[in-house]
Amino acid sequence: MAEFAIPVPPIPLVPVENQAASFPVHRIYCVGRNFADHAREMGMEVDRGTPVFFCKPADAILPGGGEQPYPSATTDLHHEVELVVAIGRDASGVIAREDAGHYIYGHALGLDLTRRDLQAAAKAKGLPWDVAKGFDRSAPISAIVPKTARVPDADALLWLSVNGQRRQAAPLSDMVFDVADILHELSLRFELRAGDLVFMGTPAGVAALHPGDRWEAGIEGFATLAGSIAAAAQPL
Ligand code: MN
Prior knowledge:
Blueprint: E1 13-15, E2 22-24, E3 28-32, H1 36-41, E4 52-56, E5 61-63, E6 66-68, E7 77-78, E8 81-87, E9 104-111, E10 114-115, H2 116-125, H3 130-133, E11 139-141, E12 145-146, E13 157-162, E14 165-171, H4 179-189, E15 197-199, E16 214-219, E17 223-229
Parallel strand pairs: 3-15, 5-11, 6-17
Antiparallel strand pairs: 1-2, 3-4, 7-10, 8-9, 8-15, 9-12, 13-14, 13-16, 16-17
């Protein structure tokens, strides 16, 4: 029997809709600049040849959303609402676009929370994005819906509101690289495994979340998710 030098960290788990079983998270891959209007608002253009990838730690997930503290080290926390793809099978090598569906267990709705000030500073210096993207509770996520139960429509509206005001809204069909493209491209760079999550990128309208804000998000006809940023601590 294996022995461990320290307590074994828990496996990050995402609930599966209408099931007792949970989805164990292996890795979180994220796609940057996958909606042309969002790339533009960031001052970039989409490179249709090469998707932008980055990662978050598996334990950055915040299943079910809910209240979370305002993160440390930032004064410009941004929301990014995204479709999430959950991988259900190990890939042995490159995934062909036409086979991508075979590897999908299901889908979810997630937020790629971003410390935009730290990202801007990293971009300016040509440094990595990790501290801007991979922080604790930076990936609120809904329950995963198995594809056998339901899949999002190809042109379903992806949306996010803050305090009742719509901030982001675009059809999933606006994605520059679709899910098949992205699984193929990821498989050229990484060994995709059952348990991987892929955050597919966000449309325009990213903006700040402040202490006390409540957000709601959805993929029309598919899933919703809500959460809030804890109010700032009151001075004594
Ligand atoms: Mn994103």
